[in-house]
Amino acid sequence: MDDEEADLREQIFHNNVREQIIFLLLFILLYLFSFMLIEKFRRRDSEDYFTADEDEVKVYRISLWLCTFALAVSLGSALLLPVSIVSNEVLILYPNSYYVKWLNSSLIQGLWNHVFLFSNLSLFVFLPFAYLFSESTGFPGCRGLKGRVYETFIVLALLGVAMLGLAYVISAWLEGDRSSLDALLNLWTYLPFLYSCVSFVGVLMLLGEYCKDNESYSGIAVR
Questions:
Q1: Which of 101, 121, 134, 165 has a CA that sits 20 to 30 A from residue 18's CA?
Q2: b/e string for 124-155 if b means 16 or more Cβ within 10 A?
C-alpha cells in the first residue's frame, strides 16, 4: 500500500513538472513571436525612444517588456480554444497512443487557468503600469527612476480603487439589491464583470479608431 501511494505521488509530481515545462516553453515561444511582432511595427523615427537619458531608456525597455508580455498572453488566449479543440480531436483519434498521452485534460485545464490569471494581470496591472510608467515624471524632490516608480504605483493604486468602486456601483445598480461591505471587500464577486466592462470599452475604442481611420482614408481618396 505504501509503495502504491509513493508511486502515485511520484506520478503526480512528474506530471506536474511536465505540465509546467510545457507551459514555460509555450510562453517562451509566444513571447519571442510577440517581441518580433512589436519590433516589426515599432516606430523608429522618434527621437524619444533613442534619447541619451539612461532613465528614459530603462523606462522604455521596461514598458516594452510588459507590453510584449501582454501581447503574448493575448495571443495565447486567442489560440486557447483552437488548441483545446485540436487536442481533444487528437485524443479521440488516438486514445491509446503513447506519444499523445501528455495531451490530457489536466494540461488543457492548466492552460485555461494560466491564461485567465495572466490576462487579468495584463489588463489590470501590466498594461496600465507600462502606460503610466512611460508618462510619469516623478515627484518633486524625488526624481529619477525611483521617483517615477513611486508615482506610477500611487497613480495605479488610485486608478484601481476608482475602477473597483465604479464596477461595484454598476453591479449593485444592475442587481437591484443593497450590497454590504463584505461584498465590496470580496473582489472575486464582480471581477469578471469588471473584466467584461473593460474589454467592452476596449472594443468600442478599437472600433472608433477603425472608423476614424476609414474616414481619413476616404477623405484622402476623394481628394
A1: 121
A2: bebbbbbebbbebebeeeeeebebbbebbeeb
Main-chain phi, psi angles of 139, to 5 degrees: -80, 155
**pLDDT per position as a tens digit, 187-209:** 566 666 667 777 777 777 777 76
Question: Cell match 512589436: residue?
Answer: 38
CA 214 – CA 170 distance, rounded (Å): 33
- Start-to-end CA span in the chain (Å): 84
Rg of the chain over all Cα atoms, to the nearest angstrom = 23
Please give the angle made by the CA atoms of 168, 111 and 104, to the nearest 5 degrees: 135
Q: Which residue has the cell 509503495?
A: 3
How far is residue 170's CA from residue 168's CA, in Å, rounded to a whole number?
6
Q: Which three cell numbers stand for residue 46?
A: 522618434
- Taking the C-alpha atoms of residue 151 and residue 138, their distance in angstroms, rounded to an integer, is 6
What is d(CA 113, CA 121) in angstroms, rounded to the nearest whole number?
12
Compute the distance between CA of residue 24 and CA of residue 18 in angstroms, rounded to an integer. Answer: 10
Tens digits of residue pLDDT in 1-51: 556 666 777 777 878 888 888 899 999 999 999 999 988 887 665 555 555
